[in-house]
Specification:
Elements: E1 2-6, H1 11-22, E2 26-31, E3 46-49, H2 55-65, E4 69-72, H3 79-84, H4 86-106, E5 111-117, H5 118-122, H6 141-160, E6 164-169, E7 171-173, H7 185-194, E8 201-202, E9 208-209, E10 211-213, H8 214-226, E11 232-236, E12 242-243, H9 244-252, E13 263-264, H10 279-285, H11 293-306
Parallel strand pairs: 1-2, 1-4, 2-3, 4-5, 5-6, 6-11, 7-10, 8-13
Antiparallel strand pairs: 9-12
Helix pairs in contact: 1-8, 2-4, 4-6, 7-9, 7-11
């Protein structure tokens, strides 16, 4: 199958492209390289450097390549930046995504698979691990944008028949994660420790997240493609909560515990707790989180050491 991977030079996208090519798919990567890196792109993929906001250019790529399926992984991923500039966030995460969906419908794509967000969409919940049918209450423009695209995808399915899977990720970590900026606490901590710098934990560090390894997330995408007729939103997470303090300690063990816990001020718009119930993905897609946090952390630390 010919597949368009939008954001295929990024952290999750490049890992997914590798897996798709291993599974003998023909892959076209579209990426503006704003956060992704050209060196991440599998040499067997066709690459276009293009920005989703350049609608005419994106349509030219559709006309030429005629993809049968789309993985949409490109986004402005910094929650705090979305709080500071919600209009910029909406232009990238809503308008550009909507244009991509429109093209997918126009060119009769068989399935549109969207990288959404679990924690950012549900907001603070007492019902954890949180299920897909829980009321959505995003606490940031970033979460609002992800939810908006989920709703648009459902509209395009109900009205135009465009099949989709919206994969609502927990906190994804692993090799190739970008340590620059505010997103990706695992990569940020590891990079600072490798540089001999003291990581700073925001707030008291008791805020919890559901950490899921990138290989598990890639497998969820593969299964969403394989199950073409399964449509809807799917949580992709471990169902387990880990505090930032616990995460720091788990990483610090790989540096002989040479760093101490140091805390800074909390961040505006940051959630306190998050974990996802992935039962629907297990029942309908045959997916579950396999990689334990300690094993994923070890593999991630080793990758950063080898690629530093």
């Amino acid at each position: 199958m010919k597949i368009l991977a939008v954001g295929g030079a990024g952290f999750i996208g490049s890992n997914l492209v590798d897996a798709l090519i291993k599974n003998r798919h023909q892959v076209v990567v579209l990426d503006n390289l704003s956060s992704g890196q050209k060196k991440n792109i599998n040499p067997k993929a066709t690459f276009y450097k293009a920005d989703l906001q350049n609608f005419k250019r994106v349509e030219q790529i559709f006309k030429k390549e005629k993809p049968e399926a789309i993985f949409h992984l490109a986004a402005q991923i910094d929650v705090r930046k979305s709080v500071e500039d919600p209009i910029y966030d909406a232009e990238i995460n809503i308008i550009s995504s909507l244009n991509l969906i429109r093209l997918a419908q126009q060119y009769k794509v068989k399935k549109f698979i969207f990288s959404s967000s679990g924690g950012a969409i549900y907001g603070e919940t007492e019902d954890r691990p949180t299920k897909e049918n829980h009321p959505e209450c995003p606490l940031s423009p970033y979460g609002i944008g992800k939810l908006a695209i989920d709703k648009y995808l459902d509209y395009f399915y109900q009205v135009h028949g465009l099949k989709y899977a919206s994969l609502r990720y927990a906190n994804v970590y692993g090799p190739r994660q970008n340590h620059r900026g505010e997103a990706g606490v695992v990569a940020i901590f590891i990079n600072k420790m490798l540089s001999g710098e003291q990581p700073i934990i925001n707030g008291d560090g008791r805020q919890t997240r559901d950490y899921v390894f990138v290989d598990d997330v890639v497998q969820a995408n593969i299964l969403a493609l394989r199950n073409l007729n399964k449509v809807g939103a799917y949580n992709i997470g471990s169902g387990l909560e880990t505090s930032v303090n616990e995460l720091f300690q788990a990483i610090n063990q790989h540096f002989d515990n040479q760093f101490r816990e140091k805390h800074g001020p909390g961040k505006l718009g940051e959630q306190r707790t998050s974990s996802l119930n992935a039962r629907r993905a297990r029942q309908e897609l045959g997916w579950k989180s396999i990689i334990k946090l300690r094993d994923g952390i070890r593999e991630t630390v080793n990758w950063f050491k080898d690629n530093n």
